[in-house]
Amino acid sequence: MLLRLNKSNDSTKIVLYCLIADSYVDDKKINLGLNYIDSAFILSRKINKPRSEAYVFNMLGNIYNYLNDFNKALDNFERASVINKKINNKTGLISNFINLGNSYFYSGNSKKAEVYYRKALFIYNTGQSDLSTLSNIY
């Protein structure tokens, strides 16, 4: 995978950094995972692509969910959603709302979770996303 990483464009590198980070976190190598997320974040800022930056915030939120640090997860999902709203990325926004809902649910706030799940479903029902997003909502 690292060979492929060196030959990739910057947007692809960001995605690969995030996937490597996720893999390290799954293997309980949290610090290595966070190092790769940091690399993704730095690169996303460097290339000035808001969609990539939102993707990194969303992935970082997922890592904090995994670590049961729901406040940090919520903060990162909120940051991602602000960017996705600004650039009108409906698919990204649905993902952010689902993840916000998950964080609230995991932390015991099912009422707030439902609000975000309904927001995700509303955007999906407006026809501004693809079918693969629907499976994430349910």
Note down, in words, how this protein is organized.
- This protein is mainly alpha-helical.
- It is 83% helix and 0% strand.
- The chain has eight helices and no strands.
- The chain has helices at residues 2-6, 10-26, 30-47, 50-66, 70-86, 90-106, 110-125, 131-137.
- The radius of gyration is 15 Å and the shape is globular.
- The protein starts with a helix and ends with a helix.
Compile the SSE list and pairings.
Blueprint: H1 2-6, H2 10-26, H3 30-47, H4 50-66, H5 70-86, H6 90-106, H7 110-125, H8 131-137
Helix pairs in contact: 2-3, 2-4, 3-4, 4-5, 4-6, 5-6, 6-7
Tell me the strand percentage band. Answer: under 5%
- Major sheet description: none
Gross morphology is: globular
Helical content stands at over 70%
Mean pLDDT: 89
Kindly state the number of beta strands. Answer: 0
> How are helices and strands ordered from N to C?
HHHHHHHH
Distance between the termini: 32 Å
Q: Uncertain runs with pLDDT below 50, 5 residues or more?
A: 133-138
- Tally of helical segments: 8
Multimeric status of the protein: single chain
Q: Which class do the helix and strand fractions yield?
A: mainly alpha
Computed over alpha carbons, the radius of gyration is: 15 Å
